[in-house]
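Hello,

I think I submitted the fe (ii) ion job twice by accident. Can you confirm which output corresponds to this input? Input:
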Amino acid sequence: MNKDKDDVGLNHYRQYMLKNVVPGMKIGQPLITDNGKIVLHEGTILNEALIKRLHYWGVTELVIHDGSDTSGFFQAVPIPISQELQRFTKDYQETIKVLSQAFQSVRYFNEVPLNQMRELANDSVSNLVNSAGVMNHLQMVRHQDEYTFQHSVNVSVIAGVLGKWIGYQGPELQDIILTGLLHDIGKAKISLEVLNKPEKLLAEEMHLMQTHATLGYKLLRNIPDLPDEVVVGVLEHHERMDGSGYPLKLDGGRIHPYAKIIAVADVYDAMTSDRIYRPKVTPFFVLEMMAQKMFDEYDPSVCSVFLSHVRDCFVGSIVQLSDGRQAEIISTGQFLFTRPVVRTADGEFIDLETNKEITIAYVLKA
Ligand SMILES: [Fe+2]
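Support: Only one job matched these inputs. Its output is below.
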């Protein structure tokens, strides 16, 4: 979180490093982490559990109100971090570490460590895919750094979950997970300057970035024992049903089913992730965008399986509404994904489909 000290203004407010914050201190400004995960209201009294959670989520500093009068302040509803999420986060971070080493080995030695990738797909990522609440945990574990590796792991997990929902199992499902891990491996051959550029890419940089699909194909095509389906899935993951994709501008009938699954996983993760040049949007908004575009760009049968399952995953999630209140998702919207029925912390039921002036601002706990 980046708060300018000058913005704080009043004498009663001071910026503290988190390590200097102690229980009993009162938050002086609403707190939103860079990746929008945890929001604490102004006036929340910190306790040990809250401070621990702030450390856990990587908050480094926050604005504290030095006054002693606590009247009129809102007490945030505690949002516990479950043991499952902690375990998921640990496994997830280890998977990212191994994948980042694989990218290094491609970048500097031109070598895809296939056995290691297969092991990662069959063990670590499969475990993530099979853990209860996987789509919710994914929503919570994101960090801004290491986007490429994190994105590859996310796409791999989401593709595995989606593959399962479609009905794939056994070696086919493992190949889909492997395709997800490898789908952007061609980016290891893109200059770091372009790959890590924080601003929006220029047209020629975008063109260079788009070569990653073909670069990935070239890295993988001659590896013995790697199924053709995986190689083709990597090559075609940016093809679109209406022929508007790249590199081959294939139309829907010619795109490999694995590539169609990766495409849906890819767009969902890219849109729900934090990017420096674009604020993150909620999964509800992403689902709605996907529902609108699905008939043009994504395979409707793949997309509809994804949308119908994911919408149910977020029943029970805790969100912050645009009016500042916390609320729980009670049931998904009948017509619009972004407008479910919610219950606020004080027990009021709100149907966002009929109360158009209120929107979901953040997901606090997926
Ligand atoms: Fe890609």
